[in-house]
Amino acid sequence: MKQLALTCAILATVASLWGQDSRQILIEKSNPGDPLVNARRITTHYGPHGLPIQEDVEHWKNGKFEIHSIRDYLYSDNNLLIGEILRNWNSDQSQFDTSFVYNYEYNGLDRLVYETNRKYCKNECSLTTVDSSVYTVDGHLAKKYHFLLDIHTGLRTMQWAHFFEYRADGLMVKDSLMNYLGNGSWRGSLRNLYYYLSSGQLDSLIMDGGYNPIVGWIRSKKEFYVYNSLGQLTYREEFGPTMNLNKKTHFHYNSEDSLHQYQTYKWSTINHSWEIVEQGTYTYQTTQLSVNEISTGTKVQIFPNPVKNEFTVRLDGKELKDCQLILYSAQGNEIMTRSFLESETLDIDRSHLKSGLYHYEIRKGTQRISSGTLVFE
């Protein structure tokens, strides 16, 4: 009943706020040798609070854009995301095929501590997962446990746990994913080791893809990162255990410091050279929303970048009133808004957000102070 009430609340909220501002991004992605362009169009609709209330994802198919999924959002009084509904259309566009309902709960410091994901097929609940998070005394994510929930008995079965370690300045140095085997027994599944530049930006990342009781952790990949003077990621190189797994990606930004293009290359062991395997272009369009760049004399610092679990945004200026940080996914979906109020610093927990590229804007009212790109590991 609680989940049903949440679903009704989300849909009712979206219906009451419909007709506000919207933002659209067209993403074109192609592979060399493939004459077809894989295009997606994402339209995000906003409520009067400036937060997204619905996003529509369309895929290019049969010579036109066809709806692929619709996602609705519900927020608390202090603008924390507390619920989502994701509805996926079936292939013939006649009805929704599957639906997912997400519920988020926070502690007194606005940090995510409990989340559920319930999947529905033909109006019947077929799967529920539960994630529970534990934080250190200084607010860092320390552990995250993942359970399967039996909807009939209410019993939870642990599947895995994620453990995190930090250095003195709060930057993460290691995280480990452990599978639970039962009877108090664990087996290592994934481990990441992080190394930083003096600026706090991630310099390199070592990923181990499994644990062998005899030889220990097994190396799977190592990554290196390069940034421009604005702190934006411009180059990433990946080294696998064999040459044919090596990749490198170049990122290019437009005049507004938003991601515009990228190209990914892979090492060919046949031709002994780098060959392009994927490239993408991002086109942005905003409707009913006036955002102008301004010069306020405000210095913006965001660190670390790339981000594992938390990042800090710091404004060095006097005009903090009405300033907000707005975070977008790489597809252009607005997913988070935080206000600076009277503080010069925001500490953001991103543990409930997926890995990938994200864009940010810092606004004062309808004016943009700064924008750029973050990488979430």
Outline the structure in words.
- The protein is mainly beta.
- It contains one helix and 26 strands.
- It has an 18-stranded antiparallel beta barrel. Strands 19-26-25-22-23 form a five-stranded mixed sheet, with no helix packed on it.
- A hairpin with a 7-residue loop joins strand 15 (233-239) and strand 16.
- The chain is globular, with a radius of gyration of 22 Å.
- Residues 1-11, 14-20 and 287-296 have low confidence and may be disordered.
Write the layout of secondary structure elements.
Layout: H1 2-17, E1 22-30, E2 38-46, E3 52-61, E4 64-75, E5 81-89, E6 96-106, E7 112-121, E8 124-135, E9 141-149, E10 156-166, E11 172-182, E12 185-196, E13 202-212, E14 216-227, E15 233-239, E16 247-253, E17 259-268, E18 273-287, E19 292-293, E20 299-303, E21 310-316, E22 323-329, E23 334-339, E24 345-349, E25 356-364, E26 367-376
Parallel strand pairs: 19-26
Antiparallel strand pairs: 1-2, 1-18, 2-3, 3-4, 4-5, 5-6, 6-7, 7-8, 8-9, 9-10, 10-11, 11-12, 12-13, 13-14, 14-15, 15-16, 16-17, 17-18, 20-21, 21-24, 22-23, 22-25, 25-26
